[in-house]
Amino acid sequence: MRRRPWSLLCLVPLLLSCGVGNGDPAAASAPTSSASLAPAPAEPTPGPPSAAASTVVPALRVEVLADGLDHPWDVAQAPDGTLLLDERSGGLTAVRPDGTVQEVAADFSDLFARGETGLMGLVLDPSFAADRRFYTCAGIREGDGAEVQVTAWTVDEQWRTATRVADPLLGGIPVNEGSGRHGGCRLRFDATGALLVGTGDNAVGSNPQDRASLAGKVLRIDPATGGPAPGNPFAADPDPRTRLLLSYGHRNVQGLAVQPGTERVFVAEQGTRRDDEISPSVPGGDYGYDPDGPGGSYDESVPMTDLTRPGVVPPVWASGAPTIATCGISFLDGAAWGAYEGLLLAGVLKDTGVLALRLDGAGALVEQFRLPELEDTYGRIRTPQAGADGVLYVTTDNGNGTDQLLRVTPAA
Predict the structure, then answer these.
(1) Which of 150, 211, 245, 288 is most exposed, with the fewest beta carbons within 10 Å of its own?
(2) Could you tell me which of 215, 294, 273 has the C-alpha nearest to residue 27?
C-alpha cells in the first residue's frame, strides 16, 4: 500500500538549552546582509525562552502517522479529528482519528505540476462542520496555457470523495509555464473570515511591484464569491485585480499564519542567495522586492526587502546568507507546550528542520533556535501546522515516495 499508518514512537530527549540547534549556525543566526535590517538581536538568546512564560522546556515525541507520500504540501484538521493532506503531484489523503489512512478520490486531471508548482496550499472552511467545504491552490492547465487557481471543494462525511463546487473560486494567478518557479501558494483564513492567498512572482521581474498582477502578492478574498473581501486596502482601485490585494512586493510567499490572541498575520517567503524572511502582514504594504532588471530581466542580486523604498515593510526575521528556504509557518498554542507556547515555527527545506521564533507583545523578534527532535532527522520540512487539538502536524518534502506526515507532541 502506498500510504500506511505507523505506530512507532520516536522519543528524543530535548536539549535543555534554548540556543541554536545543530543546524548551520550561519543560516540560523540573525540577519547580516544590508537588506536585513529587521528589529532583531544579533544572536539568539540562550536559556529559557521567556521569563514570563513557563520555564519547563518540553521534550518532544514524534510519531509517524503516514508514509509513502510524495511532496505533501499542506495539512488541515477537521472538527472530527481527521487530517486532510495534499501532495504536489496531485492527490488527497485523509488520516482518520483511528489511524486509518485512506485516499480521497478527486479529479486532478487538469493539474499543472512542474518544478515548484502543482497542488499546493489547502485549508478547511471555518464552517467546515456544517458545509464540508475546503479550498486548494494549484497550478491548472487552461486551454493552451496554465495558471494558478484557488478551487473550493466539498468532501463526503466518510472522507472518500471530494467534489469541486467553485471551479475556480479565483483564477488568473500567473504561473511560470516553463519552469514552475515561484508558484506560491499558501491559503489561510484571517480572523475576519477572509481567505488569504499567498502567491509567488513566477521569477518575472515586473510582477512583485505590479499591482495589476496577482503574482508576488498576498490576496484577501471573499471565500463565497472569490471577489475582494470587505475592507481591502485597494478596494477603490479601478482594476478588479488590484482590489484583491492585501500586500505586494513579495518574491515567493510560502507561509501564512495568524497569531493566537492577537489576530496578527505573518508571512514567510523564500529569498535568493540571501534573506529568507518572515514579516508582519500590513494591509496595503509594499514588501520591497523589485527584481525588474534591464530589458525585463529577473535580477536576483537585489535585496529581498529594499529599505530605500518609501514605506517598505521590514521583516521581523531574516536568514542572512546562506538562506535556509523557510516554508510553512504556524504558532504553537496551549499550556501543554510549556516554554514553547506561543512560538512561531517555520519549516526549513534547505537546512533541514524546524526554526522556532519567539516574538514579543509588539511582534518583534526576541530569540530564535531550532527544535532538536526535528533537526536533520526527517529531511526537508514543508509545513509545520498546529491542529485544533493543540498537536503539531508536520509534512516532510523529500520526494520519491519517501515523505511522511508526523505528529509532534510534548512528551509526558
Answers:
(1) 211
(2) 273
More confident residue, 26 or 381: 381
Q: What is the DSSP letter of 27?
A: H
Count CA atoms closer than 13 A to 401's CA, side-chain side: 5
Cβ within 8 Å of residue 312, ≥6 positions away = 249, 285, 286, 287, 288, 305, 306
Q: How far apart are CA 335 and CA 15, in angstroms?
A: 20
**Closest Cα partner for 67 from 383, 408, 395?**
395
Distance CA(172)–CA(239), nearest Å, equals: 13
Distance CA 172, CA 374 (A): 37
Query: Which DSSP symbol is given to 283?
Result: T
- pLDDT tens digit string along 169-179? 999 999 999 99
Sorting pLDDT into bands at 50, 70 and 90, what band is 330? very high
Structural element, H or E, at residue 28: helix 25-28
Nearest-angstrom CA–CA distance, 406 and 408: 6
Burial of 34: CB neighbours in 10 Å, binned 0-12, 13-18, 19+: exposed
Task: Find the angle CA(179)-CA(73)-CA(60) to the nearest 5 degrees.
Answer: 140
DSSP state of 57: P
The architecture in CATH of the region 9-410 reads 6 Propeller (2.120)
> Do 273 and 323 form a contact (C-beta atoms < 8 A)?
yes
3-class secondary structure, 316: coil
Task: Please tell me the pTM assigned to this model.
Answer: 0.88
On whether the CB atoms of residues 338 and 58 are closer than 8 A, the answer is yes
Q: Determine how β-strand 218-221 pairs with β-strand 195-198.
A: antiparallel
Residue 181, pLDDT > 90, answer yes
What is d(CA 373, CA 76) in angstroms, rounded to the nearest whole number? 22
Per domain, the residue ranges of the chain are 9-410
Cell numbers representing residue 336 in the block: 501543554
End-to-end CA, the chain = 32
Pure H helices in 132-230 = none
**Cell numbers that stand for 234 in this block:** 485597494
Q: Which of 25-29, 190-194, 341-345 has the lowest mean pLDDT?
A: 25-29
Rounded Cα–Cα distance for residues 156 and 135 (Å): 14
HSE at residue 399, side-chain half, CA atoms within 13 A, is 3
Give the number of other Cβ atoms within 10 Å of residue 43's Cβ: 14
> Is 206 in contact with 216 (CB distance < 8 Å)?
no
